[in-house]
Amino acid sequence: MPQQHRGLGLHGSRRRRSNRDVLQGITRHAIRRLTRRGGIKRMSASIYPEIRFVLKERLKTIIRNLVLVLESSATPNHERKTITTTDVVFVLNRMGTPVYGFHPN
């Protein structure tokens, strides 16, 4: 009796992640908590999409700068692939937003 092989189509269908806007995961309540911490008491309902847009642009800038730091710190024998806390603190200081409590060496 020949040996049975499992075909490629026997594992079930793949699940794909829906293309829902990820920024909607930043809820109104999360934005409200952050603004309360910043000292804002009252907000218009139309401010939430604007805050999401500004947050997205800020994160793009930070991530772009982090990638530049990783690329510039690579040596010919070793390419860095992990972002450290020091990298984030360095990038934020360079952008003019110092993070207190972290002392770069």
TrEMBL record:
It is found in: Chromosome; Nucleus. Its main location: nucleus. Keywords: Chromosome, DNA-binding, Nucleosome core, Nucleus. InterPro entries: Histone-fold (IPR009072), Histone_H4 (IPR001951). Transmembrane segments: none annotated. GO terms for cellular component: nucleosome; nucleus. Core component of nucleosome. Nucleosomes wrap and compact DNA into chromatin, limiting DNA accessibility to the cellular machineries which require DNA as a template. Histones thereby play a central role in transcription regulation, DNA repair, DNA replication and chromosomal stability. DNA accessibility is regulated via a complex set of post-translational modifications of histones, also called histone code, and nucleosome remodeling. The nucleosome is a histone octamer containing two molecules each of H2A, H2B, H3 and H4 assembled in one H3-H4 heterotetramer and two H2A-H2B heterodimers. The octamer wraps approximately 147 bp of DNA. The keyword Cytoplasm does not apply. This is Histone H4. Belongs to the histone H4 family. GO terms for molecular function: DNA binding; protein heterodimerization activity; structural constituent of chromatin. Residues 1-23 are annotated as: Disordered. PANTHER family: HISTONE H4.
